[in-house]
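$ fold --in a.seq
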Amino acid sequence: MSVDADVLLAGPRGRRLCLEYALACASRAETTESRAAANTIWWAAGAFETNGTTIVLRSRGDRTRYDPPTASPADAAAALDVIELDAPTPATLRDALAASVQAAMYWQEPDGRDLLCATDDVRAALRRVAAFLSGSPLAGWWSDGVAEGDQWAVPWDGAGRASPDVAMDLRGWHERTLADNALAVRERPDDPAAPWSGPWWSIPPTSLVRTTRGLAGDGPAGLWFVEDSFGEDAASATPVDVYPARVVEIDGPEDWARLCAQHPLDVTASRRQDWYRVTGLDRRWIIPDWVAVAAEADAVHLSVAGYLSTATRLVEVDGGGASVLAGWNPDETFWFRGTSARPAGAQRWRRENDVWERVAD
């Protein structure tokens, strides 16, 4: 399958991927024009920073007053138009996607680049990049469902070993989620802008087996695409055999909204302040009740296209609620049942200079 350009422009993560790809092309070009374009975009994004970012300007020794340049979204859009785009490779697409994932935040306001990408001028300029990337066969798998014959878990995903009692884990998650929300009702103000934070994610229990496909010689996708990463630089990737009867596929905001509407769990009080910072809106917040989902499915899979078009944005849910897909990683599958790890096939990986490489056995 192919990914559509409109999908890449639909959500903050898709737009950010397009911007990061263009900036990487400008960096590789190393021409005066490309450096000037990148600088314009940098200054335009800086004007949107709201999280206390400090820009340090160093003098070269004279006492001449330095007035920092200013750049508008229109200037950034014009700069994007002059950047020559390199033909995609697995590495350049991987790195742009990884950069977008690493910039995802749910506990504070979007950063300057995300806000810049949301402006009409820059969004229009990014269409050229989105069309260019969506036309590459190398991005075709971004809309694919779970790759049943090629699934891998990494250490922070439970090493691929199923819990001895998934039903108990799900019940425990449900009880903790309700307790967190009840505590927030008692202790937190109703003001969405109040300086409170708490659980901001909407993923199934982390005790479940989580897998992603392999990226050929790059190892599992789960090594590269991690929201809110702790910066691990070593991993043991475990192959996992899967036997699903039904996988719920999330390939866009409509799928996420449908899942929330079919199995709603109200978490308004516990998510109110964090998701207000992300979306700028105060709503009745809903996440899927994973106990109910697990009763009907073996697994739930988020495609790359689903991630790029859905994460870090408000998703309207039938019935007057809304939701945020938060804490997920691209191509990630959570398994309720139907997995078997193959520890004998485990591989060791190490990251150096932001690149994962397999360690010889």
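$ fold --in b.seq
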Amino acid sequence: MIRVTFLPDHVSVEAEAGESWLSVAERAGVEIPTGCRMGSCGACTVELANGEEIRTCISTIAGDRKDCTHITAYVFRDPTW
């Protein structure tokens, strides 16, 4: 299990590697805006604590990070979305 913490609300939830970012956020009660749901519009972008930006509509939780136990994601809400 991987603990995912969404900032700025400090909401944490357990997730399995390979789960969709959007489904994990929904389960945690965190709204991540979406637009195209294909990764090109950028509405669903979050920044991880390590500085990496990901498109949550096309990304999964730590699918390529086998040693990962905790991920912190900064959710920014653009008022246009």
